[in-house]
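Dear colleague,

As promised, here are the two records you asked about, laid out in our usual form so they can be pasted straight into your sheet.

NAME FIELD: protein one
SEQUENCE, THEN STRUCTURE:
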Amino acid sequence: MGKCVLLVIVLVMLEAVFSLDVGGQSDAVNKIDPALQAMMETQSQITVLILGSDQLMNPPDGYQTFIEANASTNRLTLRDEVITELKSIAQAQQPFIMDQLDHVSTAVQLWLVNAIEATVSPDTINQLAAMDEVRYLYPTAKMSVQTSGVGVEAVIEPNPDRSFSLEGKEVPWNVTDIGAERTWRELEVYGEGTIIASIDSGINYLHQDLINNVWINESEIPNNGIDDDANGYIDDLYGFDFGLMNPRVGDFSTSRQHGTWTSGIIVGDGSGGILTGIAPLAQIMMLKGGFSQASFVLAFQYALEHGADVMTMSFSIPGLGQLRGFWRLMAEHAIGAGMVLVSGAGNFQQTAPHPVQLRTPEDIPALIAVGGVGQFKQPLSFSSTGPVEWSSVELYQGAAELIKPDVSAFPGAGYPLLGLGQEGYDTGNRRGNSFSGPHAAGTAALMLSAAPTLPAWRVKAILESTATDLGDPGKDNITGAGLINAFAAVELAISELNTND
């Protein structure tokens, strides 16, 4: 009898052990991106993005909880607090993950999202997935190594005594129609004191309409091959290329200057006679990303630590799959830290399937996605529309369909862009929502110039609430909340600032 009881007890214990093992394996498998699982069958070394389990804004509801708790917190104070907390989380958890890696010396540790990029074997991936400290594993491309001895293409001198006047300058219709000119003339707000980080193809920063508005890292000595400010990047005078890991962020090509065109819509100051910029006294910080997801995280981190108030991203990344969740978490942390994020809605209405037609980053709920309308406020056949689906994305499963875009602006054609060379304008028929996003980025700079302590998420809310509704009443998946109204947005931002004071 006693032996029978003992046998039953042993069998129960074994069943419990096997049950736990099976459950643990299942949980580990669920932490591995399906795209990564497929790679594990054929590759012996894979570069992965390891997401830590501890995050400041734990999905799916962490961002909403955060903004409710900090509704009246000063944006600038919040930035320091959030960055400190994000770094603390990463420093506390990442050593446990680093201990499991095959090549520690090449790992890239990130803090904006508690994550590590590393090249590992399939066996190590399985071991990582079994750790409590790991939340999810994604495939990614490998970061480039920083190139030494590569300085910036051209050095410009700061102009602390620059003067600015609207007199004698032509203001294009797109700038007038979103209310920017009225903001300048009636509220005398031009974007002064704000920094817009641009992740793009690079900028022709020698153009006369941009050269006075280039952000300059005055802690760096030009082209001496030394990291003078000890921030990890050599000769980063005007920003940094995180794809190639060097400071060359200029674009002086003779055919296509995407970053120059987008920057001109944000900060072009009209030195050549046409005032193309929505915020003509703001500064532009030049950044580039690469194929590695970590390159974009590093660009975000750089922008935050160097004071960027707004980030504009006139690009669309298709087919990210589960990595959409990683991008969303990164964006939510950045916005919580006080940086407004903006992206054009894309140009894929006729080519991409619903409901996920807007690509990343413009599909992210907290980011300002800007659709396009024509000069007469009519919908355009190419401008991407919503809704956006998130229910299939790990970390955010169960989310309802999302109305996107958020607001609309003018993607062209029909207004001047900055021209090639160091002066002049491009009056060709170029168009695309790459040009819609910068209208919102410039407007956000105007708002934060007038109300510097306004939380970043309030900028999005105010842009939507003050937009001129188009089409059916209310926010919709064609034009969002409507056409940007910069004057009304800046007025409301000033009103909120005065109320909170």
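NAME FIELD: protein two
SEQUENCE, THEN STRUCTURE:
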Amino acid sequence: MNSQNNHELIVSGIHLELTPSLKTFVREKAERLFRHEERIVRIRVELECDRTEAVGTQFKAKGHIAIHGPDMNATVQSGECHQAVSLLIDKLDRMLQRRHQLQRVKRNHPHAVELDAAIPKSV
């Protein structure tokens, strides 16, 4: 599932059948991340269904963003699959915004550098 900027989106299901509408929903939501950050290489979304009797049906969405620099991971749980995907994309978006903000602050605050040699005074 490549978009125009050679971004890669991988959607997989664990104990869950991926319908075409669910794949389309994930792709539409993930486009928001690609629009905000152009340096994303790949996004992998794993949707897992846990059908234990004590909990009921729980959906877990895991996201992994491969980006230039350290990769980013997030996991959310919800009672509904589409809601889990929405929560995951929101969480990844907040993580990308925080990363961008930290890089901008770091860029605007240069560190002092100490020189070993004395600087000659001008006459």
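A couple of things worth noting about protein two: The chain has two helices and four strands. Residues 81-108 form the longest helix (28 residues).

Best,
R.
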